[in-house]
Each structure stands twice: as C-alpha cells, then as structure tokens.
Amino acid sequence: MQNVIVYVQHKNGATPKVTFEMATLARKLADQLGGKAHALVVGAGSSQLADTLKTYPLDVVHVNDDAHVDGFLLDPVIDYLDAAARAIGSSLVLVANTLGGKDVAGRLVARLGAGVVADATDFKIEGGKVEAVMPKMGGAAITTAAFKAGDYGVATIRPNAFAAQAGGAGATVQPIEKPAGKSYAVVVEKDVEEGTGELALEEAPVVVAGGRGLGGPDPFENMLKPLAAELGGAVGASRAAADAGWVPYSLQIGQTGKTVSPSLYIAVGISGAIQHKVGMRSSGTIVSINKDAAAPIAEFSDLTVVGDAFAIVPELTKLVAASKA
Amino acid sequence: MKIVVTVKLVPDPNAEKRIDPATKRLVRTGVETVLNPYDEYALEAALQLKERIGGDTTVTVFSMAPESLKETLRKALAMGADDAVLLSDAGLEGSDVWGTSYAMAHALKKVGFDLLLVGGLSDDGSTGATPGAIAEYLQMPLVTNARKAEIKDGALHIERETDTGYQLVKAPLPSVMTTALTFGEPRYASLKGIMGAKKKTIAAMSLGDLGLELPVGSAGAKTELLAFAPPAARGKGIVVEAADGATGAKAIFDFLKEKKLV
Ligand SMILES: Cc1cc2nc3c(=O)[nH]c(=O)nc-3n(C[C@H](O)[C@H](O)[C@H](O)COP(=O)(O)OP(=O)(O)OC[C@H]3O[C@@H](n4cnc5c(N)ncnc54)[C@H](O)[C@@H]3O)c2cc1C
Ligand SMILES: Cc1cc2nc3c(=O)[nH]c(=O)nc-3n(C[C@H](O)[C@H](O)[C@H](O)COP(=O)(O)OP(=O)(O)OC[C@H]3O[C@@H](n4cnc5c(N)ncnc54)[C@H](O)[C@@H]3O)c2cc1C
C-alpha cells in the first residue's frame, strides 16, 4: 500500500468533522508510505465541498457533482471508489466509522479483495506495513492489526480520534469521470434530515447526555439544553431515551449510535450500560449525575454525584452562567 | 418465500471481559457464548416478516462457527426459526472479515434465499463490514439499518436510519438487508418453542461443499492480529453524595473549575 484515498461522506456538501480529520491523517500516512494523499467527493454539492477540502494537506481531490449518487443507495459511490482506487493504484482507503461508512467499507472489501481494519484510533507504519490500533469489546481490549501484503486496504476511522489541521500547498481539484455502463437498483425515494442546524454531537467539545432517568422529552429541552448551551456543547442521549421517542436517534450515543470524545461528558440519569460506554469512554473528563451510587457509570466517571438530576442540573446551569457574567 | 438470517456466536456481551496478559487472549472461562445481540433483532425482523407474508414463508438461520458451538443455535430455533445451517471447518479458523464474507457468501448462495438478513454489527469484532462484503460477493443490493420493511409487488420498501435522519428506499428481491434495533425487540422463546427446537434440523456445511478458489482461514487472511491488550486504566473517580441540588451542583462546578473546564 502506497497511496491513501479518503472517501468523503456528505450531503449537499455538508460533511462531518471526521472528513477533515481523515484528510489530515491521509497526508501523514501517505508521506510515511511514500505515496500521494487523495480524496474522493461525489454527489450534489461536491464541487463546493472540494473548495474547503483543498485547503487541507491533500494532493488531489477527485470530484463529480453526479446526482445519481444521491438518487440511488450506496452502489454509485462504490463504482466511483473502485474506479478511483484502480486508477490511483496500490492504496489504503479511509472511510469514517459511521453508519454509512461501514456499508462503503464492507462493499469495498469484496470489490477490491481488500483487508479491513475497523474503528481505528491510531496508525503505525512498520517496514512499509500499515498497522492500526482499535479499541474493541466496549474498550475492554485494544487490538493492533496489520495489513498483510496486498494492493488495497480499507480502514474505518473513529470520529474525533485524529486531529484536523488545514494547511499544505493546496490540493489539485480534478473531475472524475462517471463510471460508464452502470445501472442501479436501490432507489432513494425520500431522504429526511433530523436535528440539523444544531452543533453536531460528534464535534461538540462538551456533551450533556440524558438517559431514561429523565423520564420524558421535556427535561432534554428545558434542563439539558440550557446547561449544554452555557457550556458551549451539545445534547446527547442513551438508547433508552431515543427508544422512548424523547429525542431523535441522531442524538444516541453508543455502540449503535454516535461515538463521541468531547473534553467533557456529563451523563445525566444514564446507568452506563456497556453499549453506551463504547460510544463515550474516550471522553476527556466524565462527570455523572445519578441517584443510584451503584450504577455502573460510576466505575468510569471521574466524578460521580449521587443525587437527583432534577435538583442538581438547574443549579449547575446557574453556577456556570454566573461564572461567565 | 425463503428468508435467511445470519447469526454470529459471540462471548456474552454482558460478561466482564478480561484479557489474560500471558496468552493475550480473552479469558473464556465463565463467559458463555450467545447469539450476537444484533442478530437477534435481525431474526425478530425475519419472524415478523414471515408472520406478515404468511403462506409457505420460512426462516433459516445461518452461522459460521466451530462445530462445538452448534447447540447455541437452538435458541434461534426456539425463537421461531424453522431450521439452521452451520458452516464449520478447521480451515476457516483465523478468518478475517474478508475471508468470513467470502466463505459465507458462497455458502449462502448454496443455501439459497429470496431475502437475506444480516445483523448490523457483531459484539466482538465489531467491524460492521461483513454485510456489505457479503452483498458484494453475492452481487446483490444492500439496504442497511431498516426500521420498517414491507414487501409489495415483489419489491422491498424500507424505511432506514441514516447518520443524519432517515430514508425511504425501494429495493428489488433478492436483496441483502440489515436491521436497526428499532425494527422490534427480539421475542422470548416460548416453552413450546424450546421444546419444538429440539426436533429442528441444524444442517452442517464445510469448506468442501463450497469449492472456493481462494484460500480462507489464517492462510488467506488479508489482515493479521498483532496484539490484543487491556486498555490503560482510568484513574479511580471521585464519588460525592449530594444532599440537595445546590450541594451537588457546587461539587460539579468546583470540579470543572479545577479542571479548567469552566
Ligand atoms: C445490541 C444492543 C445495542 C445497544 N446500543 C446502545 C447504544 O448505542 N447506546 C446506548 O445508550 N444503549 C444501547 N443499548 C442499550 C443499553 O444496553 C441500555 O439499555 C441503555 O443504555 C440504558 O439507557 P439508560 O442508561 O438511559 O437507562 P437505564 O439503564 O434505565 O438507566 C437510567 C439511570 O437513571 C438513573 N436515574 C433515574 N432517575 C434519576 C434522577 N431523578 N436523577 C438522577 N438519576 C436518575 C437511574 O439510577 C439509572 O441508573 C444497546 C443494547 C443492545 C442489546
Ligand atoms: C476482537 C476482534 C477484533 C477483530 N478485528 C478484525 C479486524 O480489524 N479486521 C478483520 O478483518 N477481522 C477482524 N476480526 C475478525 C472478524 O471479527 C471475523 O472475521 C468476523 O466473523 C466478521 O467480522 P465482525 O465480527 O466484525 O462482524 P460484523 O461485520 O460486525 O458483523 C455484522 C454481521 O455479520 C454477520 N456475521 C459476521 N460474522 C458471522 C459469522 N461468523 N457467522 C454468521 N454471521 C456472521 C452477523 O449477522 C453480524 O451481525 C476481529 C475479531 C475479534 C474477535
């Protein structure tokens, strides 16, 4: 493996921060491997996004505003990536470890006959071999895996694990041809975005997350949101809260939701099930508020306050607000 | 209609996981092997579809695992699957995602299906890449994270969760589908189901049945595991009992201040 290709997941040009983390990482890896750093961005809004991407330390950004990419599920993207990978030659493809990213990674494994490392939080290059470090089993194990010889590899990248840093000489933006002679079977009939316009959970420096202990949607709106706003952060939730319909699933943190690692994570009325822990364990400082001293969340919190969230949170919001006045 | 559901057999997710520093392997003693939780949701979805479609619809469970774990599959049969297929072979040991998907896709083609349900994520390897790789090897469409599915006029109509919201999509049959947990909570096996499961068939398949061109198992793997270690320990946290809201709030505020987080 010599070159690095970043697959840019986006919607109408809006992309999560992990894209820029991967663009920054791609440069580092490409330099160590003695190859080039590429990015592929396809679908409506790509050209506009490419203008931002080229300010990151990439060599080439391959672009096509092809609307087919948005009209059909997954397959057009795979054809573009396949074509790009074959044209570029021996390469490691970086894909965000998101719901959509996993699908892309899986199809590429078979399309390119490639190995995959998943949810990588660090890389080492040893004698030209790429090694990835990945937390597994809810953080109970840290695994290191290496790609064996082979032209292609696929790595899914954990959001927030790598730094994003613009810079470099400015990448060349280059159109990529639409793969010819393809027809697609899975039609996207409707595409709905939820919870937009607010600070993205994965990007927030502070996350205030609520669980079943909050008992309903109102405390998320009237209690957690004001605290998050004072701290300059975003509101998140446990699966139990999302399942209950109190918040949209886009706010869910954990194995089957988002992975976050803010500098400060405040868990309110969350017990700390292993599937929740997986998504927030790498946060800088973890504070929990729980009325049960025996809740598992205390085992991985830096500070646990045993008490009633409804009494504590509003007071805390006031203290934070006052400290800024 | 024939629905096949893939089920991985994994160490109990709720068991305390420990790594033996000497062998660098998971301590398996006292840790039960169970159906991968996500796959129980996929099975639930299959059973719901079977109930809705009716007729001669069947649900077959498919797993690739050592022969010694065969009986663990009875739980899936007790939940309501009609039969099971277990792909076991010493030559599959040490397979990575690539090898697992390559072998499974060939086996699943032999088993045959109109709809293949795959879980979204395993609890141990947790790459989530298997469904896509299987679909690609089968040259079939892949629709992931379905929270609702309906079969109408020979096509699949799916409502699926995405990173930013949800989508309505239409796919042909056969297709490969993964389900979101919101599809429905897995049912419990009834006593009747448990009794009935004892008589259901678990068919055996081995590498010899597949006629694969490429080597699988450790020999064919595209990745190799170099290290498996416990994480760096997090320092022990502080616990404060708060008599009232103001005390609790102050404890947090002072802590955040000390950490320069406010
Ligand atoms: C395959 C699978 C995947 C999953 N994926 C996820 C995932 O991605 N994310 C996730 O979060 N979960 C996930 N889960 C679910 C997980 O196992 C737990 O069920 C869930 O995290 C529990 O949510 P909770 O902590 O909000 O609720 P509970 O476990 O019910 O905890 C509520 C807590 O609130 C406390 N409390 C109650 N009232 C108050 C009060 N007034 N003040 C303070 N504290 C109070 C209680 O003491 C308790 O500790 C998954 C499960 C499965 C099987
Ligand atoms: C700690 C650990 C780390 C690993 N890391 C890697 C790695 O980085 N790269 C790599 O290539 N391999 C890795 N493996 C090996 C990999 O787990 C297996 O090859 C596995 O069978 C497929 O991948 P997965 O567990 O990630 O499944 P996922 O892709 O997460 O599983 C999705 C779904 O696929 C189906 N499925 C997967 N495996 C089977 C099966 N054996 N039988 C039936 N259904 C199945 C299930 O329905 C499951 O819900 C790792 C294994 C472990 C235990």
Can you put this structure into words, describing what you see?
The complex is a heterodimer of chains A (325) and B (262). The longest helix of chain A is centred in the first third of the chain and has 16 residues, at 18-33. In chain A, strand 12 (206-210), helix 6 (218-231) and strand 13 form a beta-alpha-beta unit. The mean pLDDT of chain A is 94. Chain A is α/β, with parallel strands linked by helices. Chain A has helices at residues 18-33, 46-53, 68-71, 75-88, 99-112, 218-231, 239-243, 274-277, 309-324; strands at residues 3-7, 37-42, 60-64, 91-96, 115-120, 122-126, 129-136, 141-147, 152-157, 172-175, 187-193, 206-210, 234-237, 264-268, 285-290, 303-306. The radius of gyration of chain A is 21 Å and the shape is globular. Chain A has nine helices and 16 strands. Chain B is α/β, with parallel strands linked by helices. Chain B has one domain: HUPs (Rossmann fold). Helix content of chain B is 27%, strand content 29%. Chain B is built from seven helices and 15 strands. Chain B has a nine-stranded mixed sheet with strand order 11-10-9-12-8-1-6-7-13, with helices on both faces. Chain B is globular and about 65 Å long. The termini of chain B are far apart. At the A-B interface, helix 5, strand 5, strand 7, strand 8 and strand 9 of A face helix 3, helix 4, strand 9, strand 11 and strand 14 of B. Strand 8 (141-147) of chain A pairs antiparallel with strand 14 of chain B, so a sheet runs across the interface. The structure holds flavin-adenine dinucleotide (2 copies). One flavin-adenine dinucleotide sits between chains B (6-8, 36, 38-39, 63-65, 95-97, 100, 118-119, 121-122, 124-131, 223) and A (115-118, 134, 136, 141, 143, 145).
Describe the structure using short key phrases:
heterodimer; A: 325 residues; alpha/beta; Rossmann fold; 2 domains; 7-stranded parallel beta sheet; 16 strands; 29% helix; B: 262 residues; 9-stranded mixed beta sheet; two-stranded antiparallel sheet; 27% helix; binds flavin-adenine dinucleotide
